[in-house]
Design goal:
Oligomer: heterodimer
Number of helices of chain A: 9
Strand order of the largest sheet of chain B: 1-2-3
Strand content of chain B: 15-25%
Number of domains of chain A: 2
Radius of gyration of chain A: 18 Å
Shape of chain A: globular
Distance between the termini of chain A: 53 Å
Strand content of chain A: 15-25%
Number of strands of chain A: 9
Shape of chain B: elongated
Order of helices and strands of chain B: HEEEH
Structural class of chain A: alpha+beta
Chain lengths: 232, 104
């Protein structure tokens, strides 16, 4: 049996070979794996990862080629498991799980997933994911080129969505990661600039929510963002 | 430690759900090995497996090339899932040990 990291890399390789990896964005805690590489193995980037790999399928998806993702995942022993009654399908393996997400726009679809026919999968629609798809970086490692959210966007997104988490444990974990990465970004001039740039691009309502949520959780981030909020 | 325990518990829940999913899929697939019997010049297929310690031959019938291939695929799919389920059980056992160890 493959270890989690090996399986993760094999999955990315398979998706890259099928020209999918340059169209979808790796989100969720497995981003930390590549953020560590991006920031030259900085110990400030947390290593605790969950067992689900989340991929964001941009909305709209501009991909021209049709790719059968379930067929790509089959040789890696991922099997589709459908959630009833929503119909949402995730791909499971003893070591890892693969989920597809997409930004929920407009009135949304409630509990029903979005059919992504070009990729032969469906994706769970979630609010605020457009923040992650609009600001991305590319990281290359071990011959794999992966698209990730800009770290600044990643942490700001976490400070918005953590309160929507139903499980307390997940909320704590989200906040800890956002705080650790966020405070690390503040130490870097370029990243401070990016934080500012991403923050001021957000709707005012989102900005207010982030500032409110950082107040008790991270005084350093609160000071930095509050000044930007007051200036805007 | 709290975060680590949270991740471990979440994984345990995931593995238990996964085991159920594998069981459901396994139940939908044919069990055993495909056996060919030549009876009076006709080829008939049977599924051979053990039930309560006894060997069972379950009649499948005549299969054309296409149906035979499909049946073989399903049998190999079942074997793969049984193997994966075994891995899940092993992972669950290890995880329970870790969680109980952390509690001490």
């Amino acid at each position: 049996m493959e270890t989690k990291s090996n399986l993760f890399i094999s999955t990315l390789r398979a998706l890259q070979k099928a020209d999918v990896l340059n169209e979808i964005i790796l989100v969720g805690s497995w981003c930390h794996y590549f953020y560590r590489i991006y920031f030259n193995n900085s110990p400030e980037i947390p290593t605790v990862r969950t067992l689900d790999i989340d991929f964001l399928i941009p909305n709209p998806l501009r991909m021209k080629k049709e790719v059968d993702i379930p067929e790509i995942l089959k040789p890696l022993d991922f099997i589709p498991v459908q959630n009833y009654p929503s119909g949402y399908i995730k791909y499971v393996h003893p070591e890892l799980e693969l989920e597809f997400l997409t930004p929920e726009l407009g009135r949304g679809k409630g509990d029903h997933p979005y059919e992504i026919s070009k990729l032969h999968v469906n994706a769970q629609g979630l609010r605020y994911l457009n923040l992650l798809q609009s600001q991305t970086i590319k990281v290359k490692s071990e011959g794999i080129k992966v698209i990730l959210p800009e770290p600044a966007a990643y942490i700001l997104h976490k400070f918005i969505v953590f309160e929507r988490r139903k499980k307390e444990e997940k909320r704590i974990r989200d906040l800890k990661a956002a705080k650790e990465i966020g405070e690390f970004l503040l130490k870097k001039t370029i990243q401070r600039r990016k934080l500012k740039q991403v923050f001021i691009s957000l709707p005012e309502k989102w900005q207010k929510r982030i500032v409110k949520n950082t107040k008790d959780k991270s005084p350093l981030l609160f000071d930095f963002l509050n000044k930007l909020d007051n200036a805007s | 430690m709290e975060i680590l325990n949270g991740v471990l518990k979440e994984e345990l829940e995931r593995l238990k759900n996964l085991e159920k999913s594998y069981e459901q899929k396994i139940a939908e697939l044919p069990k055993g090995s495909l056996i060919k019997k030549n009876i009076k010049g006709n080829i008939y297929y049977y599924l051979n497996y053990r039930k309560s310690g006894k060997g069972v031959f379950e009649y499948v019938g005549k299969l054309n090339k296409e149906k035979l291939e499909k049946m073989k695929e399903k049998i190999s799919e079942r074997r793969k899932l049984v193997k994966l389920k075994r891995q899940v059980k092993k992972n669950t056992k290890n995880l329970e040990k870790m969680i109980n160890g952390n509690k001490k």
